[in-house]
Amino acid sequence: MTFTINKPKDINVALAKVSKTIKNGGGSFSGNNNSGNFGGNGVEGNYKVCGDRIIITITEKPFFYPASAVENRIREYFRSA
Fold first, then answer.
1. pTM, full prediction
2. pLDDT over 80 at 81, yes or no
3. Which among 39, 3, 41 is positioned nearest to 18, based on CA atoms?
4. CA-CA distance, 23 to 25, in Å (whole number)?
5. CA-to-CA distance for 59 and 74, rounded, in angstroms?
6. Residue 42 CB coordination number (10 Å)
7. Mean pLDDT of the chain
8. Would 8 disulfide with which of 14, 21, 71, 76, CB 3.0-4.6 Å?
9. Cβ–Cβ under 8 Å, residues 33 and 11
10. Which residues does residue 2 pair with via DSSP β-bridges, in sequence order?
């Protein structure tokens, strides 16, 4: 599953906030302003910054989590960043 979001104005600040949120929830986050990986609660994925967009790919998710719920949760991380 892959989707894109608009890159925040300050990608450094946004990624730091997203990383903190994921880690505070018991997940993992590693990466930089270009690309990285994240995971938690059975969801694993990666991101790549391309111009003014961030491409997010979910590589693993529990079958009982709807894809739309996973996508909405990740979008919320960036909206709150």
1. 0.89
2. no
3. 39
4. 5
5. 14
6. 12
7. 94
8. 14
9. yes
10. 57
CA pseudo-torsion sign 32, 17, 60, 27: positive
Domains contained in the chain, number: 1
Residues linked to residue 58 through DSSP beta bridges, in sequence order:
45
Strand ranges, E, within the chain = 2-6, 28-31, 35-40, 43-50, 53-60
Q: pLDDT at position 79, please?
A: 85
For residue 80, what pLDDT band results from cuts at 50, 70 and 90?
A: confident
How far apart (Å, rounded) are the C-alpha atoms in residues 36 and 15?
A: 10
Q: Among all chains, which residue has been given the structure tokens 């599953």?
A: 1
Q: Kindly state the average pLDDT of the residues 30-38.
A: 96
Query: Residue 70: in which H helix or E strand, if any?
Result: helix 67-79
Residues 67 and 58 sit within 8 Å (Cβ to Cβ): yes
Count of residues making up the chain: 81
Looking at residue 11, which CATH number applies to its domain?
3.30.310
Residue at 68: amino acid letter: S
